[in-house]
Each structure stands twice: as structure tokens, then as C-alpha cells.
Predict the 3D structure of the following.
Amino acid sequence: MRLEPLTPAHVPALFAAGGRDEQVWRHLSAPTPHTEDDLHAIVTARLADAARGVRLPLAVLDRASGAAIGTTNLHGWDVRTGRIEIGGSWLGRRWWRTGANREAKLLLLAHAFDTLGFTEVRWRVDAANTRSREAVTRLGARPADPGAPPHGLLHYTMTATDWPAARARLTTR
């Protein structure tokens, strides 16, 4: 996998990868795009957030084809506390359970911890999204509030202290 800044040029490949797929968009804050124009509007909104300095939207590219197969974002950063969030991530269903998410998140975590110097990465996951909860846990994140009721948004965290062991485990997989 490769990550690069999201642009409108990614829209056709992204739409082919996961547009119209209700399963892909089910737990995301944006509605399922039923046309390329719908997806273009979502990308435009993400880029407007980037222009305001509140989000870094990235395209996830398939290494073999170079095509965009999903997106991920860094957002909610607070340099004072050292926290940053990963969210709004999706991959076309064809790439589920292939290691593509793990590889993309490994790149994103390395950027957050090693390049940007954050001390904590967080995720907010819909409690009903079992697949994402399991994926975040496999990355090495743990519930930020283990006693939270299993509904609504659940918070997961990985700290800079956790990162070396998580990186070693993820790179050997």
C-alpha cells in the first residue's frame, strides 16, 4: 500500500473500488455515494477540511496497480496533549481482510508517531462496527475506556510507548 494526499483525481478509482457499496459506507459519517458526483462532493468536503487545517485526507493506493482503493484521515490533532485521531477510513470490499488496512495503518501510525511526533493515536469506532473494532484491536490499540457501554462511539488508543511493539508485530505479519 501507499498513501498520498487525497485529490479529486482519485474519485473515479475510489468510486470503482467502493462507491455504491452500502456495506463499505454503513458506519461512516458520510452517506453512501451513489454516483461519482456524490463521491466528488465527499472528497471536496474533506479537502475543505484540509484547507481549514483540521484534517489530512489521504488516498490509500494499491501497490500493484497504483489505483486508489480507499481513504483514511488524520484529524483531531492537539499538539498540546500530543493526541491525534485516525478516522473516516474505508477500503473497497475487495481489499477487506487482505492486509491492506493493516499496511495502510502501519504507514499512518509511523507518520503520526515517528514523523509528526505525536504521543497518542486515537480511533472512534461505532460500537456496531464489529469489523472495524476487531481491525483496530489487531493493530494493537486498546479501549481508551474499557468500562464504556458497548453502544455509541467507542474510543481506542495507542500510545508512543505501545508503538514499538505494535510496529514490530505489524511488520512481521
The domain at 2-172 is CATH 3.40.630.30 (Aminopeptidase). The helical segments are 11-18, 22-25, 36-51, 100-115, 130-139, 163-172. The two ends are 14 Å apart (CA to CA).
